[in-house]
UniProtKB/TrEMBL annotation:
Its main location: Golgi. It is a single-pass type II membrane protein. PANTHER family: METHYLTRANSFERASE PMT11-RELATED, SAM-DEPENDENT METHYLTRANSFERASE. One of its GO terms (biological process) is methylation. GO terms for cellular component: endosome; Golgi membrane; trans-Golgi network. This is Methyltransferase. Belongs to the methyltransferase superfamily. Pfam families: Methyltransf_29 (PF03141). It comes from the Eukaryota. It is found in: Golgi apparatus membrane; Membrane. Its EC number is 2.1.1.-. GO terms for molecular function: methyltransferase activity.
Length: 511
């Protein structure tokens, strides 16, 4: 129970699956209503306050993630070592034994146009190990979301989050990943144990959906460089598929191959009639991802060039992107005015938090904005030079603003707060919820959301809930019942405002 992820550890539902050959058992299977967790998840014995960033990139306490298996399996590959009461991360990987920094230098040398931290700002690492690829890209101003299933090396994402590296438990199996189309400038897979060409290339077609127009797919794997018959056949199949996807093999050197996705639909439309895979139906929404099956078709790029023509980092953080125009809004204000107003609002709020509540001293690292809007809160954290990363959660019950969040150079994910979130317990230092409960109380039980917040919050972590006065009393009661130290404050608008701020500090509970 100490590492319980409700929708991934539902043994009853997994045992009833008709098939598991496509990775179905690694996907979400949430407990039925009334069968969910209704208690607090205790920490492991000996749990202690996590080592703070940036030191945590290289070492974490053994007692916080007490699992030696990964170190035993992968110790010789320079991934992870046990040293007394700590795990240490030398920065290596199966395919980059000499360290992630040298590997990143090699990629950039192969293709200088990648320009980490300027052209490439948001990346995805599939089958990420302990996330050293993403950990070392952070110093190059690249936000990498590291994803892996909860599988045989089941704690790799737990290690990544304990290190303070952006990561999620996610499997590329039968459903779309919970990110929008054209989310990532670069997608990386190093020995990620995925057969990209199976089922008419359906898994690589999902990568294609997620990859920004003109973006790069970096594959480091044995078929790239080994000359055994079976591996050569895999390479030929990969070249054949990527050619039909109109990807351009821009560089192949040693064990690394780099493809580039086209900037528009012209190549797709000029393919010979009957070429597989086909283009997706024009009415298919590539940003519709919540429990949506994978589709064996090529996602069309917007004719207006939306998503392809973003500006470079860091200016893209505050620049209203083109895809803002495609978001449905109920407002007499223009989308650009809404975007700018949200950015200004959160900039002022975070400045006041830093000034009055000394947020810089809190040593926040893993942060979640549970109702992110256009990502203004996360942008303000960067503007105020808080050394953290923010996962922006967009609820299925609201407008899908995820394309805008990624176009700003931020990370985000789709979620329904009536269900548990796919992360390990004790993985976030700060949970920020603005107006979440007053909206979701019509759909979900507020105590269910609060219990989930407690599960994913680290002991010593903090929740900031900014919401209407109407829900504050109940939230205060739930927080106290969970053992949080709860305080309710007025907003800057004063004691008669319709909103209040609840701060909940989670203490270390022993089972």
């Amino acid at each position: 129970m100490r590492e319980y992820i409700p929708c991934l550890d539902n043994v009853e539902a997994i045992s009833k699956l008709k098939s598991t050959e496509r990775g179905e058992k690694f996907e979400r299977h949430c407990p039925e209503k009334g069968k969910g967790l209704n208690c607090l998840v205790p920490p492991p014995r000996g749990y202690r306050a996590p080592i703070t960033w940036p030191k945590s990139r290289d070492e974490v306490w053994f007692s916080n993630v007490p699992h030696a298996r990964l170190a035993e399996d992968k110790g010789g590959q320079n991934w992870i070592l046990i040293d007394k009461d700590k795990f240490k991360f030398p920065g290596g990987g199966t395919q980059f034994i000499h360290g992630a920094d040298q590997y990143l230098d090699q990629i950039e040398k192969m293709l200088p146009e990648i320009a980490f931290g300027r052209h490439v700002r948001v990346a995805l690492d599939i089958g990420c190990g302990v996330a050293s690829f993403g950990a070392y890209l952070l110093s190059r101003n690249v936000l990498t979301l590291s994803v892996a299933p909860k599988d045989v090396h089941e704690n790799q994402i737990q290690f990544a989050l304990e290190r303070g590296v952006p990561a999620m438990v996610a499997a590329i199996a039968t459903h779309r990943l919970l990110y929008p189309s054209q989310a990532f400038e670069l997608i990386h897979c190093s020995r990620c144990r995925i057969n990209w060409t199976r089922d008419d290339g359906i898994l690589l077609l999902e990568v294609n959906r997620l990859l920004r127009a003109g973006g790069y797919f970096v594959w480091a794997a044995q078929p790239v460089y080994k000359h055994e018959a079976a591996l050569e056949e895999q390479w030929e199949e990969m070249v054949n598929l990527t050619t039909r996807l109109c990807w351009n093999l821009v560089k192949k050197e040693g064990y690394i191959a780099i493809w580039q996705k086209p900037l528009n639909n012209s190549c797709y439309l000029s393919r010979e009639e009957g070429t597989q895979p086909p283009l997706c139906d024009p009415h298919d929404d590539p940003d519709d991802v919540w429990y949506v099956d994978l589709k064996a078709c090529i996602t069309r790029l917007p004719e207006e060039g939306y998503g392809a023509n973003i500006t470079t980092w860091p200016s893209r953080l505050q620049y209203p992107p083109d895809r803002l125009q495609s978001i449905q809004v109920d407002s007499y204000l223009s989308r650009k005015e809404l975007f700018n107003a949200e950015s200004k609002f959160w900039k002022e709020i975070i400045e006041s938090y830093v000034r009055a509540w000394h947020w810089k001293k809190l040593k926040l690292r893993n942060v979640m904005d549970m109702r992110a809007g256009f990502g203004g809160f996360a942008a303000a954290m960067i503007e105020n030079q808080l050394d953290c990363w923010v996962l922006n959660v967009v609820s299925v019950s609201g407008k899908n603003t995820l394309p805008v969040i990624f176009d700003r150079g931020l990370l985000g994910v789709m979620h329904d707060w009536c269900e548990p979130f796919d992360t390990y317990p004790r993985t976030y230092d700060l949970l920020h919820a603005n107006g979440l409960f007053s909206i979701e109380q019509k759909r979900c039980n507020m105590s269910t959301i609060m219990l989930e917040m407690d599960r994913i919050l680290r002991p010593g972590g903090r929740a900031y809930i900014r919401d209407s006065v109407a829900v504050m009393d109940e939230l205060q009661d739930i927080g106290k019942a969970m053992g949080w130290h709860v305080t309710v404050r007025d907003t800057s608008e004063g004691p008669h405002a319709s909103y209040k701020i609840l701060t909940g500090d989670k203490h270390l509970l022993r089972a």
